[in-house]
Amino acid sequence: MKKSISLVFLSLCLLLSACVSNAVAAMNPKPDPTPETAQVVMADTTPEPVQISTTATKPDEAILTDTYGDAELARAVELGFGAYRADNPTVTHAEFMVMLDRAVELADATKLAAWKAKLPEVRKSTKTMKRDEGMLAVLYAAETIGGAYAELHWANGLHQIIGEECWSDFSWDYTLFTDWEEPSSVKNTGNDWNRMSSGYFYGMNTASRYSRQLIFDYHPQKNSMRPNEPFLYTEALLAALRLYETNYSEIPRVPTNEDEKIIKNVEERRQSILNSPTDVTITGAKYYVSNTGNDKNDGLTPRTAWATLKKVHDEAGRVIKPGDGVFFERGGLWRGELLWCADGVTYSAYGTGEKPRIYGSFENSADAKKWSLVAGTNNIWKYYKEMPNCGYFVFNEGETFALKQRAYWNGKEYTVQGTDGIPFDVKSMPDMHYFNDIDLTDLDDGFPHYPDLVTWNNTRTGPLYLRCDAGNPGALYSSIEIAPVIDGQVPLAGMGKDSLLDNIIFRYYGNCGVSAANIQNCVIEFMGGVDFYHLSSLQMAHGAGDSIGVSDGSNSRIINNIFCESFDNGITLEFGWDGVDTVTQGIHDVYIGGNLFENNRNSFLIASYAEGQAGIMISNITIEDNYFINPGFQSVDPDMSLMDGVCFTMRVAGENVTENIIVKNNLFYLPKSFFVDFNCKEKPDIMFSGNTYVQNRYGGVLKVNVVYDDENLSEFVDQEYSYAISDEMLKEIIANELGDKEAVILPLSP
Fold first, then answer.
1. CA 174 to each of CA 76, 115, 185, 196, 474: distance values in angstroms, whole numbers, following the listed order
2. Least confident of 27-41, 239-253, 308-322
3. Which of 307, 493, 551, 646 is the right S-S partner for 339, CB 3.0 to 4.6 Å?
4. Domain hosting residue 350, numbered range
5. Is residue 581 part of a domain?
6. Tens digit of pLDDT for each residue in 115-144?
């Protein structure tokens, strides 16, 4: 196997960061690195905003002193967003546009001229603003800055609890904003929404990385974002400041001796796993499988080995019994077949050389004869045979990738996303994108709890098209591996009760790699990427594909493996789907240690969907001595949400269901989003201890969404987004909020 792309990526990032960090820092003036929690005197008539952080300030009241006593307001003045006003009047359009000028200038000075050319009628208006007009102006500024600012992340449940009656609170009279009725360019806003609607959702879902406060505060007693109320001067100051602070450009790490040690340790672990010997205990018979074998043999010696996975399947339970071992020859390769492991059987390797490989891909597609140009084009190539739903599309063992082109399925045909039904044409694809043209008419084979979900779980096939401007892909590359779903099945390798996988490489499958309970010394790479569709909403969703998925599993050991380039999670432990007896099953007594996670969408997930059921359902889970490297930097889905790019994620629907979860002595290294993400009804019973944390300045640290009973509106959402603004703040968050008192924290780069 070639050296993982993630290590190369990691090394290059660290080396290049030394050259660019000073320039990036110059474009991002740093606020005071040690913000205080100020005590603010509330005016009697001013409502208290939603507390996004337990240490959040109360920003929307008049400050009747010689200077702002609130640290956040004082920071806004210090950074040039405005001046101190003792009277706290309603802000005018012209005044707020000047504040937004400063936000755009600090975020990206190159966009300032374009911003100042926008909304001329708003700029010269001395009329006072309502809060809905402020939301609209903020959206225009976010569109202009672009990049990460122009993304809506659905981060809380405020709109669900406020409800649709909110729209009657808007004036819907925004004549100064000449094109407000047009759709917004901000990502993840509705294709048919006007800018006011998008601005409303943007303001209630987007928070400052520094103060962790929403751009526009929520009033819990009124259950409203108060769009029809006057937009106070202090509210305007904070809205402009928080807009800027929603997306500090991360300052890449300057490599240190400690970083170099980490890179060395990562490579040593990789080589140790890749070259691990076979060391398993077999109490019964041993069977051998080789590419040079014959299924007519007895399989009892290397010289009389079987040849195929089908033979292994056929003999399971008939010849192969619990306590037996099945050994695949090192250096061998088996393609396009699933491995179903029998109860109590060990599957491992024999011989010398590279671990045996099991690929989901049917063949190496790097053959010029297998690709032909589509008529009327010079860059759209059609594969020679129809293919099922596919995921990863890998060239030269990971040197480069093709991205999947997705379109809406409307029940009859594919249409261009973001349009009112324009038919999709493969000729419109960008370079190095591919498209599965599978007819899903009248197909409904979804999960029982999603009756309209058309999933990967079907066997239909269709033409496959690739845009490659450089020429015939079959001639350009030495290997092309296309990851399909075989026979509509979820895992490439399915585990039996008390079975063991050891020293096998699994690659190139469109869905989950291994449904594993016990696995060691294995490599699982390039898993996932298939599509699934909700027919009732005529929309497409996607995201299937863990390296390992363990559903309702207990007594599991997952040790000394490599999980790389999974479309979803490196490991997922989950339960609680319909029909599952979660109290008697659940996830208990699991040990996960010594693994290397690289470039997965997320590294690790524990999830319970069993809302309303009583009893401890997740207990005695130990996650120890794992390396979580670069989550969020997988190669096939760059448009991720804020919930992605996390080292450790926990989503628990019920209450009082977790017990004795230990996360200790792991390495959390440069996640794209956060070290840890909790989305629970309560903070789970979990102990972090002695982990090592490495992040870019302004990178994510901790994301917490604690959802309470919706009858108590003031506590419906407790949302905390924590970022590495300073070394002091990073240490405080990890020690006090995450609870890791023994943490090793590498200093941030200047």
1. 27, 19, 19, 9, 55
2. 27-41
3. 493
4. 286-359+486-528
5. yes
6. 999 999 999 999 999 999 999 999 999 999
